Amino acid sequence: MAEVIWTEPALQQLDAIAEYIALDNAAAARDLVQDVFNKIERLESFPASGRIPPELPDSVYREVVVPPCRIFYRQEAQQVFVLFVMREERQLRSFMLENR
């Protein structure tokens, strides 16, 4: 089994998305966070189960989609590092370039 490790930026990004949703619907925000953690927990047993992001076909990164979120991670040996969470509608490449 792999150990899932959330990075601080990924947790902050998920929190920001949940806070925005909570402005209109607190229950939906709680459900989203629970769904994300449930899906990511599966990576303990199946670390390669996420898809390769379509924008990064030759990447070592994988993603899990829990609408409206895309959760990016990388597996290293028996560890899964959750690195980045973003809303689905954002374009990955332009977002990455803006933050460099």
Write out key terms for the chains shown:
100 residues, alpha+beta, YaeB-like fold, 38% helix
Q: What shape does the CA trace take?
A: globular
Termini separation comes to 34 Å
Number of DSSP strand runs: 4
Strand residue content: 25-35%
Instruction: Give the oligomeric state of the chains in this entry, treating copies of one chain as homo and distinct chains as hetero.
Output: single chain
Sketch the major β-sheet.
4 strands, mixed
Q: Mind telling me the CATH superfamily name?
A: RelE-like
Q: How much is the radius of gyration in Å?
A: 13 Å
> Can you tell me the CATH class?
Alpha Beta
CATH architecture: 2-Layer Sandwich
Number of helices: 3
Structural class: alpha+beta
Estimate percent helicity.
25-40%
Order of helices and strands: EHHEEEH
Give the overall average pLDDT. 91
Description:
The protein is of the alpha+beta class. Helix 1 (8-22) packs antiparallel against helix 2 (26-41). It has helices at residues 8-22, 26-41, 92-98, and strands at 3-6, 61-66, 69-76, 79-87. The chain contains 3 helices and 4 strands. A hairpin with a 2-residue loop joins strand 3 (69-76) and strand 4. A 4-stranded mixed sheet has the order 1-4-3-2. The protein has a single domain (3-98), classed as YaeB-like fold (2-Layer Sandwich). It comes from Rheinheimera nanhaiensis E407-8. InterPro entries: RelE/ParE_toxin, RelE/ParE_toxin_dom_sf, TA_system_RelE-like_toxin. Keywords: Toxin-antitoxin system. Pfam families: ParE_toxin. Belongs to the RelE toxin family.
